[in-house]
Amino acid sequence: MYAEGVPCWVDAQLPDVDAGKRFYGELFGWTFETAYGASVWARLDGRPVAALAHKTDGRMPTVWTVYFATPDAEATARRIQVAGGQVVMAPFPVDGLGTAALAADPEGAVFGLWQAGSHQGFGIRHRPGAFAWAQLYARDTETANTFYGHLFHEALFGPGAEPDFGRVPVTDVFPEVMPPHFLVHFGVEDCEAAIGAVSRLGGRVTAGPFTASYGTVAVVTDNQGASFAVLER
Q1: VOC domain: from which residue to which, for each copy (predicted)?
Q2: CATH code for the structural domain at 7-232
Q3: Are 186 and 171 in contact, with CB atoms under 8 Å apart?
């Protein structure tokens, strides 16, 4: 089980899940199986790495969302509100797999919470084709550090912390008008080759490649407009 505050799962809300399966299956070598409802789990070497879900409301953004582990989603949601964040979607059960919630930090960046049931989260990470990092692009990194530091202190600053979660100004990579947001990073063996594959599959490159403290990064969108990053370490 993942410790509180550690990124433990990601999902994409897409207009066309089948198109997403073709795109990500080719890009990362994922295979897929039905998870619950209209959602599918992506697997790498047989282990779960992400979910693709059908976007039921066209007004919702087409996005990747990162989920942070929590032992008690209800309690964490209350702490988020006390700290100046918002609960976008109150904790709800997911078919016996666990309990999920959506929240936003004081600057409006949206993230998820996951209280594990039978589904613990990533079965594999930190390798090509799997989750590698979550970067928060914030207007005010001091505000972000204060909020997340109180919310997930042990994961970020405790002994032996390996948070897989960074915080930088949004203007480091994006135009000033870009709202604060999380960007999910997936590992790749070769960043240049990965962005070539993204373009060939109908996606596009929006930033980079550039060198960050944690590796070589390119920000891309898939063939339906969901943004993510590829990370070569």
Answers
A1: 6-116
A2: 3.10.180.10
A3: no
- pLDDT band at residue 218, thresholds of 50, 70 and 90? very high
The pLDDT confidence band at residue 1, using thresholds 50, 70 and 90, is: confident
Calpha distance 166→35 (Å, rounded) = 30
3-state secondary structure string across 212-228: ECCEEEEEEECCCCCEE
Q: Convert 122-145 into a string of H (helix), E (strand) and C (coil).
A: CCCCCCECCEEEEEEEECCHHHHH
Listing from the earlier edge strand, what are the strands of the sheet with 39-44? Answer: 31-36, 39-44, 47-54, 7-14, 63-69, 110-116, 98-104, 86-94
Global pTM reads: 0.97
pLDDT of 58 strictly over 80:
no
For residue 183, give every residue at least 6 positions away whose Cβ sits within 8 Å of its Cβ, in sequence order, or none: 64, 134, 135, 136, 137, 219, 227, 228, 229
Determine the Cα–Cα distance for residues 220 and 228; give it in Å rounded to an integer: 6
